[in-house]
Write a structure and sequence with these properties.
It contains seven helices and five strands; from the N terminus they run H-E-E-E-H-E-H-H-H-E-H-H. It has a single domain, classed as Nucleotidyltransferase, domain 5 (2-Layer Sandwich), CATH 3.30.420.10. The protein has about 200 residues and is α/β, with parallel strands linked by helices. The two termini are about 30 Å apart.
Amino acid sequence: MRKRVKGKPDAALYQVRKEALGLLEEKSWQGHIDLFYGDESQVSPEGYVPYDWQFADEDVCVESAKGKGLHCFALLSRDNRLLYATREESITADFIIEQLDRLSLELVKPTVVVLDNASVHTAAKVRKQLDDWQQWGLFLFYLPVHSPHLNIAERLWKELKARWLKPQDYRTTDSLFYAVKMALATVGKNLFINFSEYKF
């Protein structure tokens, strides 16, 4: 059984946006643009426990604890380039703007950032920056609603929580936050995600 988003995308809009995303993927593959997928998540001291198994004489567990989590925002490309930022406070529209401003100053070619329709991505103050970003060559592409499977950045959080973080990382908040930052810092260097080729 899997968790599934509530609701379904409008079929016609979904098809149009998916085809448009395919064209962006093709432009990226041809080297004409840079294409990043953006998303945010929280790593919590309460732990992440996927389905797993252990031997009868083993006692493997994630010791859960109450406390503030670490909020992460990431921009990920299919070739494992990762730009990220973390904070203990919640992700806000102002924080998203800061990260996209930072990206806009580092562009080497026209760049598209794919985002879902979270309120921090679609806030009025974010949309107000669109013209300025576009002048620098940065463009935002919004996915159709209820379509997290189209965002490859979702895979990053699964890999981080299910594979890269170890049970012992959850012993203290400090050790957890350190492990998260170390893992994110080595994506594309020591840690890699193998993405299936996008079907145009």
